[in-house]
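Entry 0007
Protein: Vigilin
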Amino acid sequence: MSSVAVLTQESFNEHRSGLVAEQAGGSSSAGDEEAPAYKDAFPPLPEKAASPEGTQEPVNAWTSKIRPLKSSVITQVFHVPLEERKYKDINQFGEGDQAKVCVDIMHKTGAHLELSMAKDQGLSIMVSGKLDAVMKARKEIVSRLQTQASATVAIPKEHHRFVIGKNGEKLQELELKTATKIQIPRPDDPSNHIKISGTKEGLEKAKHEILLISAEQDKRAVERVNIDKVFHPFITGAYNKLVADMMQETGARINVPPPSVNKTEIVITGEKEQVALAVAMIKKIYEGKKNATTIAVEVKKSQHKYVIGPKGNTLQEILEKTGVSVEIPPSDSNSETVILRGEPDRLGQALTEVYAKANSYTVSSVEAPSWLHRFIIGKKGQNLAKITQQMPKVHIEFTEGEDKITLEGPTKDMQMVQSQMEAIVTDLVSRMDFREISVDPRFHRHLIGKGGANINRIKDLHKVSVRIPPDNEKSHLIRIEGDPQGVQEASKELLELASRMENERTKDLIIEQRFHRAIIGQKGEKIKDVRDKFPEVIINFPDPAAKSDIVQLRGPRNEVEKCSKFMAKMVADMVENGFFLSVPIFKQFHKNIIGKGGANIKKIREETNTRIDLPAENSNSEMIVITGKKENCEAARIRILAIQKELANITEMEVSIPSKLHNSLIGSKGRFVRSIMEECGGVHIHFPTEGSGIDTVTIRGPAEEVEKAKKQLLSLAQDKQTKSHTAELKAKPEYHKFLIGKGGGNIRKVRDSTGARIIFPTPDDEDQELITVVGTEEAVREAQKELEELIKSLDNVVEDVMNVDPKHHRYFVARRGQVLRDIADEYGGVMVSFPRSGANSDKVTLKGAKDCVEAAKKRMLEIIEDLDAQVTMECVIPQKFHRSIMGPKGSRIQGITRDHNVQIKFPERVDGPGKEGPGKEGLGKGGPAAPPAEAAVQENGEANGEMVEEPAAPVDPTAPKKCDIIVLSGRKERCEAAVEALKALVPVTTEVEVPFELHRYIIGQKGSGIRKMMDEFEVNIQVPAPELQSDIISITGLANHLDRAKEGLLERVKELTAEQEDRSLRSFKLTITVDPKYHPKIIGRKGAIITNIRTEHDVNIQFPDKNDDNQDQITITGYEHKATAAKDAIQAIVDELEEMVSEDITLDARVHARIIGARGKGIRKIMDEFKVDLRFPQPGAADPNQVFVTGRPELVDEAIDHLLNLEEEYMADVNENESKMTYMKPTGDRGASSMDEGGRERGSSKGFVVREAPWQTGSEKAPDMSSSEDFPSFGAPVAAANKASPWGPKRF
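Output (structure tokens):
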């Protein structure tokens, strides 16, 4: 029990006056006390000085307290012999299962493992970590890395529990210690055998430990004595003192069941002699008390707990005082009879004690409405704490739903507590009220508001408590408690809110989920505008994961309708603008549609108000996607097609085909229409949108191919309309090229003879063997028959031999057999085998389908004929143009070799005197082979030659240079055509005059501008060096590219000239003179005002720097009319500021902080409310109370009145706080006051005084703090001292 002293003002003053007197009286005695000795106050540290052997270091105040620290990390090494290793694969040390097991053990236990292999192939494992982790790791190592053995040990069944230990702790400790697994039979199992599994060493240790435990238990005895429960208190004694004395005297363990356990058996364990002695003592006590007298008395059931006392302490107290045992009936019994048992002469005293304890506590109640209970308790129990601190033994109990408070406590305290509680209840009933209002539960959460905002506002405003029932109660009643007026106003406001909500309407809008993100906008900007427009409407979007189209609107009926219409219009606009169509445009024209610097595409986008997306450059797609309103998309499509039509010989033709046939003509995944487009040179066929009912199909492309595609499309439509039939057959993919034939010749014959259309799979199709035949039933049947015969013949594999001159062998097998691979692809996978190099044989073997072999043989003879008929021709082109002719990565030269089927060899590049670079050669498909002497050549523009050195020879000045001669090999007519193609690629140069000052803008940042032009026009642009100061720019490229490049360059010059003129117009400057004191006002908070002026007038406004001479000059730069407008705007602000006045007032500095508020919140509110500027004094100002108010005269007066009112209000609080501080304990600040309350001067403190200090004895003096010898710096050299320091011997 604890008591609390209540300190009143009178007792406080009495205590303080007594304390002062005591201090005054005690000051003289304190001075008389002897000061402590220096060695006692500051005992010296132990010194490690050289001492004679055998002498011990003296123990002093420091060394006696020092304890050695032990490391928490230990390291143990375990050895696993080779014969006991579980993983014996020596080659896999450090990896495999063994390493995985070790890593797993480290993760499980937190210990660190290191493995090493001994010479005898045994495994040594070093384990580091905390003791517990090391022991666990050891157990895991033994069980998982070491082979296991098992053994059994037999001990008496009754000893098993000692092996297990309390809660199994002994068994776990034993398993960790021996690194074994110990299995003990269950209590219901009659077996006494304990099974042990682990290593041999661990088995022996575990057996030994278990046998030791059993042997120890054999020495012990157990005795059970049955004594009636009522006599147990006499054996234990009060507070168990008697039984504890017996255990100490005999050394045996005596276990008496506690009062709550209804057992009569007392168990004694220990050595046999000890147990016998303890049993004799217990029986002696029992015999002495067996005939004790008993009396029974009636005590109210409610008073039994006071007789028992906390944790039975009262019963023990009575037993200790009187030697009488008090027996209380169980709490679940209705009996009120209490039995006292003991010596007759002590029963009377015990009975008096029982009645005294029973009547020491009283229970009473105070009537109080249940709704007032929490107000009586107060916030965090503050109200009750006042009572319970004075009367800590009184227990006050509130029961929910009951209109009373139960009090329980000592009789002497109860009357005071009850009167205090009744006074509190009376006071609360007189000034508190409550009201219950009925509101539909569906509106409850809206009354509460987001995060309780609404209900908290009402509570704070009206100072009431509002209880809204939880949803699971489904109750209509809301209870409001508090001040009667507050209750009235709060209930009125809540009913108004509920009434308004009843008038609310909830509407579900169906909006496709794909539009939700667009309506919400980036970071919710768009939906914020909608919510600002309709603030009373709550808009809820579904969770994106729900995939719901329902958007819920809730609010006043009229506002919901308006918002619904507004959002429906937004969606309609999005649907209208969400139309898109794809336009197929030939890939080579995409860059023309984009235009220079994106000019064309940007113009189309702006004028048609559409979004146009082009495929990526590395994409094979030709589709340009246009998105926007339908009519705008159509307009953009027409303009894009017009650009393509203008650039190429593209015609557009419309064909009328019934719309019902469109799907069948397109085919599955567009197979049919795609086959027609590919066959007709890549024309574009556009079908109208499905379901539109339009019959017109548009074909676009080169005129000849369009006509061809039209015929095929109409033919296929006619077939479909008359009688369309489809058949499918399969053939190996390698046969498809042979079935199609060169240039589609084979398949065309089948089509012409049967009239059926044959469609082969594209690379994207899943089934690469499927061939589809479409047409009339008869045509399909005939075509199918012919194709099946062809496929059957292809399956008939034959082998044939032909003779090929060995000099041509190299051509066929060169480049990893590229020519042979092409033949195999074209002729159904025919395998062609040439004799090995050096075999001197001309026999070549062909293996494959008979028709394929014949066709391949014919093709090879054609190639040989070309090789035999080849000629060599020279073409002279200056070497400086060779790189341009080759094109990027040799693409142009490869095109010529492919188109004209010739071989082209470029001369070696001359890099310096007597040195030549590698030659370059282009090889055409099926072209003639190079002579054997020129084996190391370059093919297809790819360098694979080597540097060669040749002796210098006399050169004919009229003859062309060797480095300019390009050699062509092939048929004569093809070589001549190739020479013309090469000469057409020779670049020409033209010059354009561009003002020198514009050159750097044309080049652009890091050359980006000029690179872009060169890439766009495929030319080389040469800008003269800056030191030349030349206006001439050279353009070099193909003749047909020069005009476009020149035009583009002149267009860029025109743009730059216009930009220069605009720059000069924007450079107009003017200055305005403004008093520097107005500058902060013009700039505004965080630059808001000046930023607004800059943005609105598109000008740059520069304020003077701190070091400028003209501090009143503001510079404005921009267009002349805009700079003038900005000047007028600044002047208007200055005029307004000059009309303002500034007045100073005196406000007590102690209230400044409260006026300013947290983070300036208070002062900002005043400045915003009165439109004035307030300036408080800085710390250290001459007059800390002076405050400046600036603004319009009438507003300044209002602000000053407001500030003075605030000062008066806050000063009242300051004075009240200062009056309270007079009762507070004075602080330790010595400078605060040197006088006590009585006006007596306090004596100055002498500080801490010691006797016999080193500087007081002998010639020693106190250390000098300015001396570098007594107080050396870290790292500084120190001279050896000849004398002892007051601080003790120096250690440096």
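Curator remark: The chain has a mean pLDDT of 77. The radius of gyration is 55 Å.
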